[in-house]
Amino acid sequence: MTIQFLGAAGQVTGSMTLLEYNGKKILIDCGQFQGTPDEEALNFSMFPFEIGEIDNILLTHAHIDHSGRVPLLVKKGFNGKIFCTPPTSHLVEILLKDAGKIHMSDAVWENKKRERAGLDPVKPLYSEEDAIEALQYLYPIAYHKSYTLYEGLRFQYVRAGHLLGSSTLILYYVESGIEKTIVFSGDLGNSSSLLEMPPEVIDHANTLIVESTYGDRLHEDIATRADRLVDILIEATSKGGNVLIPSFAVGRTQEIIFELNHFIATHEDQRALILKEIPIFVDSPMAVEATKIYENHIPDMSECVQNFESPPFKMPNLHLVTSIEASIALNHNPMPKVIISASGMCEAGRITHHLKHNLWRANTHVVFIGYQAEGTLGRKILNGEKTLRILDADVRVNATIHDLHGFSGHADEAHLLDWIRPIKGLEQIFVNHGEASSRNTLADEILKIHATTIHLPMIGDIFKL
User: Fold this and answer.
1) Which is nearest to 401 in space by CA: 378, 422, 426?
2) Which of 55, 65, 132, 453 would suit a FRET pair with 400, their CA atoms being 20 to 30 Å apart?
3) Domain that holds residue 444
4) How far apart are the first and last CA of the chain?
């Protein structure tokens, strides 16, 4: 068994790992790079393998940084099974189709500039039609079902608690007559989400590949996150301002809706009464589609959601915006309000228009509730840059900026260590899916609880297991 790291190694996005076993080649995830121009340019580079040699893909979950290059792989000739959980198959459909639309739109925008400059046009990474073509290869597998890929190699998915359908992947392979285990953590949740069941405990692995997105920090405001968010919403709107929440359309938006709904249902104070009257707009067609999928997968969610007395994703003051006209109207409406809009890192989508129209206002509040990759507009805002180029305008940042780590869908350092601690039999651990500081810190902390070999792989590194 050999393992080669082809993405999310030294950075957070572009997850892709190649396993080779007895002549068979399997990809674990096939994600899109996001962040700096140099990172995003990697999406257009040649795959470092022959497409026809890839037998299968095993997806850990639906997020674009784990699934976003699947249509490109199919476009170039892949025609094997793409394994995932049933909820992941439903979420991947809307995410990949939307990504195809964005790639087409980005290419049109770029080619207008290139035409004026006398440069050759560029082609999109893939189209919506390419994404639809790729969906036929999805092969859903239920949690905990053991599936034999080839002689001597089988796998199963267990819950990772990061996103609806997200998984930790356990592979069992035979080496010299002995069965060994490789565990890919996938993206791990932090056990605090009201939506997700917590990550399942892993008790044995010979080889562990673990994410480290927040491997060097703690989510200090988990216990108070809902209170803090509600306080921000009330403060901003009481002073005539808007609240912008850049949010991933899949997962984080549904979590915020339910958190606010749950707050109203479980509090009888003045804040709950005020919150019920604040107009909340979800401005994302994909978020609306994703919410419907969540509503169809209540049994796959937490007991808190399953036992909620009213529909978990419906509120009297919640308004779903799908049309472009209604989205534009939000920025001409003087009424104080909350706008939840994609994308979560502010790199595309309707949130960019809302930032352009609101960042310069002193009474605007912007609330970040998820990871902001290096080089993204979201990271620049968080870093305190005072003037930003957004769409076609230079925008002065006068808004109040909040960073609520408690809503992160990723485990922090403590949660990661708690998840790793009970694993027995570890011969080696690969720490990936993290920037340098996160990986190094987590690796040092792991060595305090496990006397094993730690690797910090970079893109292209190959190891024999």
Assistant:
1) 378
2) 65
3) 2-217+409-464
4) 6
Q: Edge-to-edge strands of the sheet including 24-28?
A: 138-140, 81-84, 54-58, 24-28, 16-21, 2-7, 462-464
- 378 within 8 A of 346, measured Cβ to Cβ: yes
Which of residues 407, 427, 444 is at a domain's end?
A: 407
pLDDT single digits (tens) 308-332: 999 999 999 999 999 999 999 999 9
Three-class SS of residue 21?
strand
Query: pLDDT for 189-229, tens place per residue?
Result: 988 889 999 999 999 999 999 999 999 998 877 778 899 99
CA angle in degrees (0–180, nearest 5) for 431-59-159: 75
Helices H, strands E: what count in the chain? 15, 22
Whether residue 262 is found in the same domain as residue 401:
yes
Dihedral pair phi/psi, residue 189, rounded to 5°:
-80, 170
What is the helix (H) or strand (E) element at residue 428, kind and residue range?
strand 428-432
| CB contact at 8 A, 102 and 130 | no
385 CB-contact burial (10 Å; exposed 0-12 / middle 13-18 / buried 19+): exposed
